[in-house]
Amino acid sequence: MGPGARQRFLAAISLTVIVALLLAGTARVTGRVISLTAGLSEAAAPIEGVLVGAMSAVGGVGTDLADMWSAQQSVATLRSENAALRGQIAQMQAAQYTLNQVLGVLSLSQTAALKGKTVAASVVGRAPDAWFNTLWIDRGSDSGIHVGDAVLSVGGVIGRVLAVTPSTSVVLLLADPQSAMGVMDARTGATGVVLGQGRGSVLELQFFTGNAEVRSGDLVVTSGLGRPIPAGLLVGRVSALGKAELGLVKTATVVPHADLADVQTVLVVTK
Question: Domain 118-269 carries which CATH code?
Answer without folding.
Answer: 2.40.10.340
